[in-house]
Amino acid sequence: MATLYSDLISKSDINNPNIVKVVVRNGIALNFFRNTKLQKNLFIHQGVYAFKYKILKDFISWKPSENEKNFKLEQFRAMDNGVTINVLKSVSEVHLGVDTEEDLNRANEIAKENNY
After folding, report:
1. How far is CA 88 from the centre of its chain?
2. What is the pTM of this model?
3. Cα(18)–Cα(111) distance, integer angstroms
4. What is the C-alpha to C-alpha distance for residues 114 and 82, in angstroms, rounded to an integer?
5. By C-alpha distance, which of 15, 45, 19, 18 is closest to 30?
6. Which fold is adopted by the domain 2-113?
7. How far is Cα 51 from Cα 33, in angstroms, rounded to an integer?
8. Rounded-to-integer distance, Cα 98 and Cα 101, Å
């Protein structure tokens, strides 16, 4: 299993629970947070996944883990079942999750500015 990450844009990203953070070391996701005081090896999780077929088949057969339910982060289902999540840094210029109406407004602005 693999996912993408990008650099934190501002200190406010750290305190925003709608921006999921990932701790990365040696190409592996060590932990994910909505809220944290950590700052070392901390990046924005992009929420895009790649699965090998067997892992995906296993993933959908597993019940949501306690961590997944408590933190509302689906990647904990994999991690709690022993799956290593490899991480790659995104090369995209725009990194924007659309989780709130404010995010949607920003996404529409970016689309208009760039003629998407």
Report:
1. 11
2. 0.82
3. 21
4. 41
5. 45
6. Spore Coat Polysaccharide Biosynthesis Protein SpsA; Chain A (3.90.550)
7. 21
8. 8
